[in-house]
Amino acid sequence: MNASDVIAELPITDWTGAISPEQAATAVTALEDGRVVVLPALPFALTAAETPFLDAGGLDNTRKNISFDPKTGRCNGSGYQGAELEHLSAMLQRYGRSAETLVHHLFPGYVPALERARTSFRPAEISGRKTTPRHDDRRLHVDAFPTRPTHGRRILRVFTNVAPGDIKRQWRVGEPFEPFARAFLPRLRPLLPGQAWAMATLGLTKGRRSAYDHLMLGLHDTGKLDTGYQDNAPQAHVAFAPGTTWMCFTDQVLHAAMSGRCAFEQTFHLPVSAMADPAKAPIKVLERLAGRKLA
Length: 295
Ligand code: SIN
Ligand code: FE
Prior knowledge:
Blueprint: H1 3-6, E1 7-9, H2 21-33, E2 36-39, H3 55-59, E3 66-69, E4 74-76, H4 82-106, E5 115-122, E6 154-161, E7 169-174, H5 177-184, H6 195-201, H7 211-225, H8 227-232, E8 235-240, E9 245-249, E10 255-259, E11 263-270, H9 282-290
Parallel strand pairs: 1-2
Antiparallel strand pairs: 2-9, 3-4, 3-5, 5-11, 6-9, 6-11, 7-8, 7-10
The structure holds succinic acid (SIN) and fe (iii) ion.
Residues 122, 137, 143, 159, 169, 250, 255, 257, 263 line the site of succinic acid (SIN).
C-alpha cells in the first residue's frame, strides 16, 4: 500500500473558510470510506505566550497528553498553574473551537448530531516512549476505550502538527476495517453473561459495555499483540509535516503513531444515523460479519 491509497488531500487554507459543495462531498465520502483526510496547508498558529508550551515535550519525555474538557473548561495533566494554566487552557479551547468550525464546514450533514468531546495537546516525543504493548499506540490499532463504551457511536479525530522545525508526525495506516475484522473476529472471546452489568455497577465503565464495545476492545488488543500482523499486514507510511491538519474516524482507520511531537487533537462523537452512509460504520460491518445485533 502507498500513502496515496489511504489519504485524501484537500487544499483548504482557512479554519473558517468557505468550502465548495464538491469539496464537502469529496471529504465526507473519503472520511466514511476510512481514508485520512489531509489538509497540508492548514497550520494552527500559536501566540507568543503559547510557544513556550512546545518545549514541554523536549524537556519531559514522560509527560502525558494534556487534556481539556470543553464542558468544564478545565485542563488536566499539565502540571502548570496560575497564569500559565490559563494560557494553556485558552490555547486548547481555541484549537477545539477551530477544529469544530472546520468540521462543521467540511461535514455540514453532521452538524445537528456531532458532539465535541475532549481536546488534547501532545507535546512529548512518541518514539522511545516506554509503555505496555496494549497501550502502545505505535502498534496498528483502531481506537476503543475500556472505560468509555460507545455503543457504536463514531470517533472522529482532528489532528494538527505544531512541532517546531521540520519534525513530522509519522503514522502507519493499515488495511481497511473489514478485512482486519474478518481476520481477528474468530479469535475473540464473547462477552460473559453479567460481565457488562458488573463492570458498570463497579464503576469500571461509564455505562454498560455493549457487545460491540467488547469486540472493538478485542480487536484493539488482539491486533496490537500480534507482532506478525504488526510487521506484515498491508500498511502505508504517512508523514504529516508541521502545518498540516488531518482527520479520520479512528474507530475505523487502523493507525499507529510512530514518531513526532507537539500535536493538537480534538475528538468528536457522531451517531451512526448521522453518517451519509451508515453501512460503512464499524458496528454495521461487525453486525454483518457476526450475523446479529451488537448494541
Ligand atoms: C493514536 O490515536 O493512536 C495516536 C495518534 C497521535 O497522537 O498521533
Ligand atoms: Fe489511536
